[in-house]
Design goal:
243 residues, alpha/beta, Nucleotidyltransferase, domain 5, 5-stranded mixed β-sheet, 8 helices, 12 strands, 30% helix, disordered N terminus
Length: 243
């Protein structure tokens, strides 16, 4: 809460923030105001983010009951290609309609495992890992600030060696652990954990104000592990025909 002093009257400006997280099928929306939750809504959208998102979003906006929005925070991925883009598009629409700033936060850090490690008495190191497809894997350590570092891509052998070299890190993945091709010992160390809008908010509220301003000033863009794969049109395709 921010206080403004006008003469002998102190007026409190209440922060009301909306968070949207749609980088996995386990999507969620959270609305926070003046130190308490107005709404937390989880929903499974699978490939239908574009249709499943709007009812929870409308419910969150109804909960405002005339309050102005201070900010919209959206998970920028990595994760589902379409889910991230739809979440960002919805966040942009709300920010424009409500005339408030908008910022993206990496989704990997907004998971229960990452937040539990950050809040543990020993301040354990958490590391997001996963399959980047086409024979590549990624690791992304969670920083002390609560945000995730940029994902580092590597081949299978380098991936396993990296995990062996991080015996004390809490490993988690947005995928199922048994899909990572690890031996039983390494696989047993990996938890399945998905981002949550409420935890995205938790990270945001813990950031230094200067970092928040920096994120507000940055162009909002999806975070992808790799550029989208596109195939070339086959010979004879209408797009290749000359007039």
């Amino acid at each position: 809460m921010i206080g403004i002093f006008c003469g002998t009257i102190s007026i409190a400006l209440v922060e009301t923030i909306l968070a949207i997280e749609t980088s996995t099928p386990q999507a969620s929306i959270a609305l926070w105001s003046d130190g308490s939750w107005l709404l937390k809504n989880d929903f499974t959208s699978d490939r239908n983010h574009n249709s499943m998102l709007f009812d929870p979003l409308a419910e969150a906006l109804d909960c405002l009951e005339g309050r102005p929005l201070s900010a919209v925070i959206v998970g920028s991925g990595p994760g589902s290609y379409s889910g991230i883009r739809i979440g960002i598009a919805a966040a942009q629409g709300v920010a424009i309609a409500r005339d408030c700033p908008l910022a993206g936060l990496g989704s990997l850090a907004a998971t229960p495992v990452a937040r539990a490690a950050a809040n543990s008495p020993q301040a354990q190191v958490a590391m997001a890992i996963g399959d980047a497809r086409r024979g590549m894997y990624f690791v992304a350590p969670i920083m002390a600030t609560g945000e995730a570092m940029e994902a580092e891509l590597m081949d299978a052998d380098s991936f396993r060696a990296r995990l062996e070299g991080e015996p004390d890190s809490r490993l988690f993945t947005l995928d199922e652990p048994d899909k990572l091709g690890l031996d039983e010992r390494l696989e047993a160390r990996v938890a399945h954990s998905c981002p949550e809008a409420g935890l995205l908010m938790n990270i945001w509220l813990g950031l230094d104000p200067s970092r928040r301003d920096e994120l507000f000033s940055q162009p909002l863009a999806p975070s992808y592990l790799r550029a989208p794969f596109t195939s070339k049109a086959k010979s004879g395709h209408p797009l290749l025909r000359k007039e």
